[in-house]
């Protein structure tokens, strides 16, 4: 028995001297859940017999099974959602949201929410002006700027003539001038960000029209965050400008959900005075009353308070808010950024300790929410690999995908209903699409997730993964495995199929044998790897060995799987992310929506 116990703890393969039948005795002890999987009540645990495959020398396969009887969580159809930062008004990119290429890229990630919010939310003022060129006195004296400004106006006129979804074809020279403008403005925006002092922004009626047109054409539901820092002398919220925006949006019959403010825990550093949780709760009740006065928005959804990292003072703010307005909001929201981009290194994205920092935050938020409004939905908004705008060749590289995919898996498995990625397109390096309108690695990862992953989360059962911990140390697995029902929107797979997604942070390949209900099924592999000589720093990716790129401005490439024969062992290359659709499982949990 001591010999058996030693092997169970170590997870090492049984040596040739083991007595016959020892593996069969060891099997029940090896049926362990992975450290990142769900609690014991998440589903039935099955004993997986650990067998040495023929020809294997001293290596135990990782055996994997999934509970197919019932889901342990059901998340929103819009689980993976997007964010646009108001800085796109400053740097001019908002005028290009009607680009066919951008709409095609955004449409690929639908259905989703599009949250319009960020650091500059609380410096945003609405101005009901239809023609921005006239309001600022016409184009400047510079010839190229004049042409650029005139082109924007001509583009707006052309868009106004279109009915329904308004799509523009911007000339290359126009886009080149915009990139030059954005590059100059990028320095200004970074200076504001690092000094934590922001200038006021004006959102015109035409700009709001362009924003809504982009969301509507892309199949995204717009969530607009209103300025919460317009304050009366008694520190209550001044809603006059917000009311003007609400009335205009209602006159256009825009279907919008709402928020108020962004990271209220930082208001003292922004304006020199704080807004406590109780006052913020009263402000949300005031906003709810405004919405109920406007027929179009009487039943509109309201989300908040969008706090930052849940430290002690932030938790106190959330508690004060929940006491007053917990029942007023439709979901409770917070933000998370893993590391400071100013000190980030590529090796940071491979650290399991960093990947696990989110779990503690989830528990803290859930504890407060369940204390005041049990069962209330929780969203993670404004999530990104790095803070302070990200870092080039890091937060927009293949390496950042390890954090992003693990974030999706971890949040879904712990019941977080929606995660909003910052950002779809902006001046920083945390975005999914660059300023040449080319999709970056995290875009392709998100597209695969949308195409293959459904809202039903399944419990996994793993054997052979655990190691013997050293005294005082926590095991943090470098092989992360998550399972969902395959997306119902993917007509290549019948209902009842299951999709696994796997992150291998090891510098060696890993072998996984599907067992139980997954045994001897045909599997489709979607292996995502960096493309080109830059390795983990690469901004391009390949799927099953084929580089991914748009076919043209209106067409995304076909995501072709690599079929694996029934019963074949899954071989996971080092430092990769992959999806595996197990076909025709006929999983009871996945047959019906």
TrEMBL record:
<protein>
    <submittedName>
        <fullName>HPSE2 protein</fullName>
    </submittedName>
</protein>
<dbReference type="GO" id="GO:0031012">
    <property type="term" value="C:extracellular matrix"/>
</dbReference>
<dbReference type="InterPro" id="IPR005199">
    <property type="entry name" value="Glyco_hydro_79"/>
</dbReference>
<dbReference type="GO" id="GO:0005615">
    <property type="term" value="C:extracellular space"/>
</dbReference>
<dbReference type="GO" id="GO:0016798">
    <property type="term" value="F:hydrolase activity, acting on glycosyl bonds"/>
</dbReference>
<dbReference type="GO" id="GO:0030198">
    <property type="term" value="P:extracellular matrix organization"/>
</dbReference>
<dbReference type="InterPro" id="IPR017853">
    <property type="entry name" value="GH"/>
</dbReference>
<dbReference type="GO" id="GO:0016020">
    <property type="term" value="C:membrane"/>
</dbReference>
<comment type="similarity">
    <text>Belongs to the glycosyl hydrolase 79 family.</text>
</comment>
<dbReference type="Pfam" id="PF03662">
    <property type="entry name" value="Glyco_hydro_79n"/>
</dbReference>
